[in-house]
């Protein structure tokens, strides 16, 4: 074979080196964009990164749609998740064969951001609030996507690195992470898929981390790549590179910004869609100005080429020729979609009403007879709705339970076209509209004359021509704001109000021109649903979210409440028929407080894909035991949550790891139709692993599924430890009366915490408790064990990094320098950081490295933020916070191990280090 890079028998690194050596500098630069340029003289085809495949192939036409990622996670079945990934990979390959330019084999999935806050708009995309479980499930899905052969089916990309859990100002906000939260929580979810070799690429996030754009994070090269077995490709998020010199203004011009991104480890620039000209021009300018050199370009190109080699692109025989269009939505994938949806069904409450046996069912609710696609869903090839699934098993009656209204303005009633193509809304003969409440004040209007939703066209005219809320720019939702004589309609996407001009409804430039409407109810949806429920043996109310409204990419939720009109519907149905089952279909938790107190049965799942209705029926009628378990805490109120932008889960007692309240449903919660008993928990630490075992028995009246969850708690520690932390689980199916011994092996390194005194993980010698139960909130048994490890010594006074403090208040983390390092910055007078257990030995000089916008004063105190003053340090005014000054001051003799508090007496002081020298 004449060209070594085309020889599959050679090592990947050798093939890449050969190909890299054949490329000119300009050809190499052409490979740094999402749309990589062809190299015709070497026979290299165009290549593109970025096919969406979060829970099935997305955006390219009908393909198998599996449950949303958070729903796949609720199965607590990594092997099932792997199989879903494998099925998705086959469909990606099939689409790629049909259209290589439209369906690339670098897939942007899975999302492994831990679900720290349930208000995050993209909650549906993640797996769990627990980083270990997220890593397990992310590894499973990525393994399925990648395949297990020499040649990868697809190249999975982890999203989004790092600390990304808010849509609010996501490109401008900084996620501030103390070292323990960084290493124990955020990084941990990424480590497992990379270390296992399941994920071969990573995408940085839009946000900043400790003041530095994530796309410039030194963690990409210093940490991520040290975990990888092979070359790791790093691709930017869409349009994120321009933020570096745009909204983030971190660098002054594109060439400088792109140069630093390349040096930080970014290999592929996703910018300007399919037009690479500007991006490549900036990189050529950076090379001309010697901001980067050819070695920097080679490093990035090497990572990109390694992925292409491993995808078999340069092999003499095209891989996976046996995978054709016939695999797309094939019967095996349909059965897998049903299995995944069934296992994801999570029974939150059951007073004995479920499973149903027979009788007439009233199926009501805005989600009762529709399946909704989220932004990263594929196109549903068919839909089995809740109504369809239940109707296949019993006599049903149905209604959506939404209000039917007319709108009357001073100019007259609102009229709508009856043509299927729709038309402008005008004043004239009254038209009826169905009113959908999706929460957060967002409503949608569906015109009865043609069954189409009202949207706003490019000219700002209201038109009834939409299938429903859809698209990146959702133009079909409004807020109804009260006025003295009625309501005004505010278009959510544009923020403009609806007015009437020459009889046509459109968006008004001046809010004063907003039309005031009187809402007249033609028929109460709740009333109609209640009448149907009263005549049925049981009512099934299907409620939840619209995946593109009030909680989606670009939009966080403000609270956890059910949409008000949906809760009103539930209450009306329950009043008419107490034999009511609440079925919630959503990509995030709700505060179901009233329902938990009143409704006898509550079942949750994510939006479950094309087979949702069959899965629901399988569980409701007892053909399948509900096998789902929650992978995040369901709170009673948003008041129990810290600020959305506060990422310090340790300081704020956030997630089940640190939350000390009583949640509505705890992490891991989910009921079975049978009961289980636990006996004889043992915890035996070995040289490298902790063996946890328990006997679990089916003590109920039928076969069932239990997810046996093992937790540990470290009883004594130098640092604040989790209330309990998941260490392993076993999903077990037991026949009536069957018992089984189950267990897990926990690597002792998993019990380590990040020691800020020495910048490394440490397993601390300590007494611990092993715990086991069906959830984090229901612990059946405990067993004590002694964790073998080391004792953390006192802190070295000559080495105190401000960002590596033990505790802080009034401080924000920030970057110490543009390219690397962290510092703290006082946000208010009296802000402080604590360094615990500092060992002193007499005469001491303190050296504070700090910068001040206007100068400042730092006070060193012992034992308490208001304790004994050891020294007062004047911080000079500096030209930049990136140019701190060292200030030395002599202390009176200090001996013994003491807590040191560094207190900033004014805001705007940036502290990098504190040193004590004898």
TrEMBL record:
Swiss-Prot/TrEMBL keywords: Hydrolase, Signal
SMART domains recorded: CBD_IV, Fn3_like
Gene Ontology MF annotations: alpha-L-arabinofuranosidase activity; carbohydrate binding; xylan 1,4-beta-xylosidase activity
GO biological process, one term: arabinan catabolic process
Ranges for domain CBM6: 798-917
Family: Belongs to the glycosyl hydrolase 3 family.
Name used for this protein in its record: Carbohydrate-binding protein
Species of provenance: Herbidospora galbida
């Amino acid at each position: 074979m004449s060209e070594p890079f085309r020889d599959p028998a050679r090592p990947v690194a050798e093939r890449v080196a050969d190909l890299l050596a054949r490329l000119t500098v300009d050809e190499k630069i052409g490979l740094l964009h999402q749309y990589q340029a062809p190299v015709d003289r070497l026979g290299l085809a165009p290549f593109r990164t970025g096919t969406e495949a979060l829970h099935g192939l997305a955006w390219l036409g009908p393909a198998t749609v599996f449950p949303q990622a958070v729903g796949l996670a609720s199965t607590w079945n990594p092997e099932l998740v792997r199989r879903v990934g494998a099925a998705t990979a086959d469909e990606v390959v099939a689409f790629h064969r049909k259209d290589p330019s439209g369906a690339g084999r670098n897939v942007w999935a899975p999302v492994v951001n831990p679900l720290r806050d349930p208000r995050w708009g993209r909650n549906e995309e993640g797996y769990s609030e627990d980083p270990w479980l997220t890593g397990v499930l992310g590894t499973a899905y990525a393994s399925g996507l990648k395949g297990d052969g020499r040649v990868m089916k697809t190249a999975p990309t982890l999203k989004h690195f790092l600390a990304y859990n808010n849509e609010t100002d996501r490109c401008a906000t900084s996620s501030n992470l103390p070292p323990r939260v960084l290493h124990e929580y955020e990084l941990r979810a990424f480590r497992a898929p990379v270390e296992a070799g399941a994920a071969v690429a990573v995408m940085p996030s839009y946000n900043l981390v400790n003041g530095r754009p994530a796309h410039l994070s030194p963690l990409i090269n210093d940490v991520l790549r040290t975990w990888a077995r092979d070359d790791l490709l790093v691709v930017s998020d869409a349009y994120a590179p321009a933020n570096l010199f745009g909204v983030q203004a971190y660098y002054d011009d594109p060439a400088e910004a792109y140069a630093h991104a390349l040096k930080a480890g970014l290999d592929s620039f996703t910018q300007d869609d399919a037009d690479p000209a500007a991006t490549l021009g900036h990189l050529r300018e950076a090379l001309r100005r010697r901001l980067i050199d050819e070695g920097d370009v080679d490093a990035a190109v090497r990572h990109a080429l390694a992925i292409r080699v491993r995808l078999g692109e340069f092999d003499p025989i095209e891989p996976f020729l046996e995978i054709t269009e016939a695999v797309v939505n094939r019967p095996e994938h349909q059965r897998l979609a049903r299995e995944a949806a069934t296992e994801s069904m999570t029974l939150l409450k059951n007073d004995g009403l479920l499973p149903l046996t027979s009788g007439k069912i009233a199926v009501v609710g805005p989600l009762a007879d529709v399946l909704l696609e989220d932004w990263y869903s594929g196109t549903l090839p068919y839909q089995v709705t809740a109504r369809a699934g239940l109707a296949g098993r019993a006599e049903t009656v149905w209604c959506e339970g939404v209000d039917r209204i007319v709108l009357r303005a001073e100019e007259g009633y609102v009229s709508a076209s009856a043509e299927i193509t729709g038309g402008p809304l005008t004043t004239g003969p009254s038209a009826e509209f169905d009113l959908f409440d999706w929460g957060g004040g967002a409503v949608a209007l569906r015109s009865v004359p043609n069954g189409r939703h009202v949207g706003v066209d490019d000219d700002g005219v209201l038109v009834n021509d939409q299938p429903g809320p859809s698209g990146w720019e959702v133009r079909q939702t409004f807020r109804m704001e009260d006025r003295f004589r009625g309501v005004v309609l505010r278009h959510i996407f544009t923020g403009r109000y609806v007015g009437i001009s020459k009889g046509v409804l459109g968006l008004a430039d001046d809010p004063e021109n907003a039309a005031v409407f009187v809402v007249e109810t033609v028929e109460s949806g709740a009333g109609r649903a209640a009448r149907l429920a009263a005549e049925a043996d049981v009512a099934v109310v299907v409620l939840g979210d619209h995946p593109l409204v009030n909680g989606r990419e670009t939009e966080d939720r403000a609270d956890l409440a059910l949409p008000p009109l949906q809760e009103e519907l539930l209450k009306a149905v329950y009043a008419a028929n107490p034999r009511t089952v609440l079925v919630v279909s959503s990509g995030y938790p709700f505060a179901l407080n009233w329902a938990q107190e009143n409704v006898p049965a509550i079942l949750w799942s994510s939006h479950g894909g094309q087979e949702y209705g069959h899965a629901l029926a399988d569980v409701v009628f007892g053909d399948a035991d509900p096998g789902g378990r929650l992978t995040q805490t369901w709170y009673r109120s948003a008041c129990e949550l810290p600020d959305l932008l506060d990422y310090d889960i340790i300081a704020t007692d956030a997630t089940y790891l640190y939350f000390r309240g009583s949640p509505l449903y705890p992490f891991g919660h989910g009921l079975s139709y049978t009961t289980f008993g636990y006996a004889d928990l043992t915890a035996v630490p070995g040289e490298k692993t902790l063996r946890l075992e328990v006997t679990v028995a089916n003590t109920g009246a039928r076969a069932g599924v239990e997810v046996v969850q093992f937790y540990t708690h470290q009883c004594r520690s130098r640092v604040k430890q989790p209330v309990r932390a998941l260490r392993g689980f076993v999903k077990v199916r037991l026949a009536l009366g069957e018992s089984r011994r189950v267990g897990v092996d926990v690597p002792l390194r998993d019990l380590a915490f990040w020691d800020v005194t020495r910048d490394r993980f440490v397993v601390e010698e300590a007494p611990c408790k092993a715990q086991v139960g069906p959830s984090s909130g229901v612990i059946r048994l405990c067993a004590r064990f002694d964790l073998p490890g080391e004792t953390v010594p006192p802190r070295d006074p000559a080495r105190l990094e401000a960002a590596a403090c033990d505790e802080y208040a009034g401080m924000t983390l920030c970057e110490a320098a543009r390219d690397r390092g962290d510092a703290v910055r006082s946000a208010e007078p009296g802000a402080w950081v604590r360094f615990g257990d500092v060992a002193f030995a007499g005469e001491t000089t303190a050296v504070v490295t700090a910068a001040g916008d206007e100068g400042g004063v730092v006070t060193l105190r012992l034992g308490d933020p208001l304790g004994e003053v050891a020294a007062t340090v004047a911080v000079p005014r500096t030209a930049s916070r990136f140019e701190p000054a060292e200030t030395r001051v002599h202390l009176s003799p200090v001996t013994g191990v003491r807590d040191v508090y560094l207190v900033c007496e004014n805001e705007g002081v940036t502290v990098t280090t504190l040193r004590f020298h004898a």
